[in-house]
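ok trying this again, last paste got cut off
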Amino acid sequence: RAVTGEIWTAAIQAALDRHGTVSIPARGHPYYLDAPLVLKSGQSLIADAKAEIRLLPGINTCLVRNEHLVAAPNGPVPANTEPDRNIVIKGGIWTTLATSPDNWNGNLRGRSAARNEVPGCHGVMVLSNVCGVVVRDLTIRQSGAFGVHLSNCRDFLVEGLTFEDQGRDGVHVNGPAAYGVI
């Protein structure tokens, strides 16, 4: 489907890279992304509760992920991985526009990237190889992928999430994971 809305990926990513924190205000139109927003250690992404952030049809990536993803679908995660630290995601309505089980709008999997994806990492929000992450007070709407996919995480808090027409697990946790509250 053709979308005529503004694409905000580059602007939001540039603000994150420059300031470390981005606030997304509510407005009358959704914010469209054409690639994942990548959060680095110490960064925060705070959206107004009514700000709607949508993935363009046919992109088939996550909407938000951390920078240094590490997954090990064929064995244990290497012990010497250095995690991203202290990441906060709060607020907003996040959607991939999967409007029904037969209409995913080309956004079924929620891969970590359009090219060179990290196998086993997929969802609306992908947080793998993170120590100290907070996901709070947001809505995942019309998604066919996991809402929040956590793997190889420690010291995490996920609370106050609302799921509307969610097609898969709301919060999916893969090990190793420790010291978390959902």
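PB: full thing came through this time. The chain has a mean pLDDT of 89.
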